[in-house]
């Protein structure tokens, strides 16, 4: 085939002038294109640079799937070559939240949560390249078995509590590394409330950690407890399994004050006095504990057996159905109906440590 040569335009005195040079370049480029097209692939090779496509995104997940079980306490790492990660989801049975953070370049995601023992995780990762094309990878990984611990938390999800209720987590195994466990617990509030954690032994000897506000909660506060105990070592190779988000609401400020000298209980709601009730508290030798206590539970009926609190002999009792009982301590201090003490309310302290009143007032 013939290839035309570019003609020099009239009035272009200088060879290689800007306009002429552009036309020559265009003509030569066209010739090369035509020659290549007609060559059939068996002759000359173009020495021009070939346009290259961006490599497709490849997503890798560590610890890898299909191999040996991952170790408890490891973190999940997801990496994308050729595209930015746009969505990462890690899930497991009975797991609320498994968060993480993305690197500045968008190519690597690292979980903030740790892997729990003997658990199967599903990882779904999606990456997007510069052209907007997406790649999704779904994989699973499993962790090795190990000794475990759990924390029993209160309040429950969705509960409405009073202004004095602490956040409590009681553990079924001894916690040797309290700092490691506490670092994986957090409480946030709206509006903001200052508070702190404190470790105690509960009445059954279990390790327990409580979060209390500096004063009382503000009525209407929304509280969120996050338990990121999955994979944390409480000491001696005993690993947590829980990844929990617990939200509850603070209701009205209901504060009842018992005066054991006057033998009255004054009930206030949001600072307003609702009622003043005559009561009878602990008699000599069985004085009622003083201090600030929170309502732990309320039941319409409960059995009270003095053996459970170490009272025997002439003072022993076994009451099968005590009505309208409000528990103040795990060891057994209640406010409850005590019709057998009728005539003492407001006049004589005659109980074994509980605060008694009429059945109608207790209800």
Topology:
Elements: H1 18-39, E1 58-62, E2 77-81, E3 84-91, E4 100-102, E5 108-111, E6 120-128, E7 134-142, E8 147-149, E9 151-154, E10 160-161, E11 167-171, H2 178-183, E12 185-190, E13 195-201, E14 207-213, E15 222-228, E16 238-240, E17 243-250, E18 254-259, E19 264-269, E20 272-278, E21 297-305, E22 318-327, E23 334-337, E24 355-357, H3 359-362
Parallel strand pairs: 8-16, 10-17, 23-24
Antiparallel strand pairs: 1-2, 2-5, 3-6, 4-5, 6-7, 9-11, 11-14, 12-15, 13-14, 15-17, 18-19, 19-20, 21-22, 22-23
Would you mind describing this structure in some detail?
The protein has 363 residues and is mostly beta strands. It has helices at 18-39, 178-183, 359-362, and strands spanning 58-62, 77-81, 84-91, 100-102, 108-111, 120-128, 134-142, 147-149, 151-154, 160-161, 167-171, 185-190, 195-201, 207-213, 222-228, 238-240, 243-250, 254-259, 264-269, 272-278, 297-305, 318-327, 334-337, 355-357. The chain has four domains: 1-40, no CATH class; 58-142, Immunoglobulin-like, CATH 2.60.40.3780; 148-250, Immunoglobulin-like (Sandwich); 254-362, L,D-transpeptidase catalytic domain-like. The chain has three helices and 24 strands. The chain has a four-stranded antiparallel sheet with strand order 1-2-5-4, with no helix packed on it. Strands 9-11-14-13 form a four-stranded antiparallel sheet, with no helix packed on it. The longest helix has 22 residues, at 18-39. The relative contact order is 0.10.
């Amino acid at each position: 085939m013939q290839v035309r040569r570019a003609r020099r335009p009239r009035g272009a005195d200088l060879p290689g002038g800007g306009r002429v040079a552009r036309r020559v370049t265009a003509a030569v480029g066209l010739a090369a294109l035509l020659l290549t097209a007609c060559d059939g692939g068996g002759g000359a090779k173009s020495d021009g640079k070939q346009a290259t496509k961006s490599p497709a995104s490849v997503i890798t997940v560590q610890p890898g799937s299909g191999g040996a079980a991952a170790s408890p306490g490891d973190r999940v790492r997801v990496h994308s070559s050729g595209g930015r990660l746009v969505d990462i989801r890690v899930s497991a049975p009975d797991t609320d939240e498994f968060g993480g953070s993305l690197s500045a370049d968008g190519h690597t995601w690292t979980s903030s949560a740790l892997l729990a023992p003997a658990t199967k995780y599903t990882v779904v990762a999606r990456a997007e390249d510069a052209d907007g094309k997406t790649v999704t990878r779904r994989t699973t990984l499993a962790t090795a078995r190990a000794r475990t611990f759990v924390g029993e938390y209160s309040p429950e999800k969705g509960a409405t509590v009073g202004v004095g209720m602490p956040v409590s987590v009681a553990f079924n195994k001894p916690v040797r590394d309290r700092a490691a466990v506490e670092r994986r617990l957090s409480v946030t509030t709206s509006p903001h409330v200052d508070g702190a954690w404190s470790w105690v032994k509960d009445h059954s000897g279990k390790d327990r950690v409580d979060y209390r506000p500096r004063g009382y909660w503000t009525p209407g506060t929304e509280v969120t407890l996050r338990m990121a105990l999955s994979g944390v070592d409480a000491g001696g190779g005993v690993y947590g399994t829980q990844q929990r988000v617990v939200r509850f609401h603070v209701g009205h400020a209901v504060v009842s004050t018992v005066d054991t000298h006057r033998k009255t209980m004054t009930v206030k709601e949001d600072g307003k006095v609702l009622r003043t009730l005559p009561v009878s508290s602990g008699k000599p030798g069985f004085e009622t504990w003083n201090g600030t206590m929170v309502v732990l539970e309320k039941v319409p009926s409960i059995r009270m057996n003095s053996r459970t609190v170490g009272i025997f002999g002439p003072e022993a009792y076994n009451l099968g159905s005590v009505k309208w009982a409000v528990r103040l301590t795990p060891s057994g201090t209640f406010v409850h109906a005590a019709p057998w003490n009728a005539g003492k309310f407001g006049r004589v302290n005659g109980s074994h440590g509980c605060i008694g009143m009429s059945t109608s007032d207790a209800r």
